[in-house]
Amino acid sequence: MTKKPIIGISGSIIVDSGTPFPGYHRSYVNDDYIDSVIQAGGIPFIIPFNTDKEVIKDEITHLDGIILSGGHDVDPLNYHQEPRQKLGTTFPERDVFDFSLIKYSEEKKIPVLGICRGFQVLNAYHGGTILQDLSYADHELLRHAQPTDPTTRTHSLNVNENTLFAHLFNDSQIRVNSFHHQVIDQVADDFEVGLVAPDGVVEGFQNMKSPNFEFGVQFHPEMLHRFDPNAQIIFKTLIDHAKRVD
């Protein structure tokens, strides 16, 4: 009998800035991630941020798949670079948390989906690098930080033939939303690029050598899933690879 898979979503910390508890730390993920998993047929669980690796490992034992959610810039020390002027806010402890989630997910052989920061975390964990700001590219790039509604699809992506994404979308080009100031620079070894923006920015890949199923996207399908079939299929793919059979 197939049961709904339990999908963990990596949490972060938000700090209250107003009354009555200024400076108070709260664990959270954006609600769109929760609804995306439910609508795709999974059971969502927030994985609260923490720094205890034994706890993180134990958390993974209860899960059938994970989503690495968006958030802070990845600390460039994780890909052997020093911080540049336009690096945004980092959260080094969360890098350790997310790296641990990847490690233990691979050990358990459960599928992983990285979104935005999570996409970049996957790349950095496996030896790739990140361009710390769009302005550091050697040519002019598209606007990748849209000022409009999160559900507005502002630029196109080309779908590479014979890749996971070509199979999923059955189309040579799609349109997506965009909320990032950093991009993948060097793609990690063993990763196959499936989605590329017209300016050359890598926006989707799959790890072809991992012991589990790992893939990621730079855009935010969780914000599009209520009406966009391409966004829906991303989460359904994760769910399909996480199906529980008892």
Quick description:
This protein has 246 residues and is α/β, with parallel strands linked by helices. It contains 6 helices and 15 strands. Strands 5-2-6-7-14-13-12-9-10 form a 9-stranded mixed beta sheet, sandwiched between helices.
Would you mind describing this structure in some detail?
By secondary structure, the protein is α/β, with parallel strands linked by helices. The protein contains six helices and 15 strands. It has helices spanning 31-39, 53-61, 92-108, 117-125, 164-169, 229-242, and strands at residues 2-3, 6-10, 12-15, 25-28, 43-47, 65-68, 112-115, 130-131, 155-159, 173-176, 183-184, 191-196, 202-207, 214-217, 244-245. It has a nine-stranded mixed β-sheet with strand order 5-2-6-7-14-13-12-9-10, sandwiched between helices. Strands 1-15 form a two-stranded antiparallel ribbon. The longest helix has 17 residues, at 92-108. 40% of the residues are buried. The mean pLDDT is 96.
